[in-house]
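Technical note accompanying the year-one report. For the benefit of new consortium partners, we illustrate the data format agreed upon in the data management plan: each record pairs a sequence with a structure-token string. No post-processing was applied to the example shown here.
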Amino acid sequence: MSATTGRHLVEGPRVGIRPFALEDGEEFTARARESTRLHHPWLFPPTAADTYAAYAGALIDDPTRFGFLVCERTGDEGGGGIAGFININNVVRGGFRCGALGYGAFAHAAGRGLMSEGLGLVVRYAFGPLGLHRLEINAQPGNEASIALARRAGFRLEGYSPDFIFVDGAWRDHERWALTPEMPGASD
């Protein structure tokens, strides 16, 4: 992990992470529209300017949420297109110091390992500068790509929650995965 470079908070060999910005709306929504098939029925990121503005605005303004764009690194400045996004939601401070992760790759970046690298950067940032102690991922049992990403990042399966999160018009069952800084792989 390198120090902050350019617009990125943290960089790895192929990607950097940076906060959402309202100016990213056009690229983000175009990538989301291109990725509808990949995301359905698990995820519904904003595909229009107005819904992106509300979504990004909440991530920017809400102190219990942190949104990160996973961007490919190209050139000396480390700039590059948006490969996906990772959000830390429902952040609780105090003795709990926990947050719940949500994420999605865009179709052009899927299967290339960019989200694995990006998730590693977000985990280190969460356990470092953000001061969190626990991260959770809740994935629908049939979402094999999401579960594989959690497993690759070192998250452990902790349980199963029936009717846990309202997705695509219904309450869906979810597997609960978690990671703390002491676990193997948390600081890789």
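Partners are asked to follow this layout when depositing records. The chain has one domain: 10-179.
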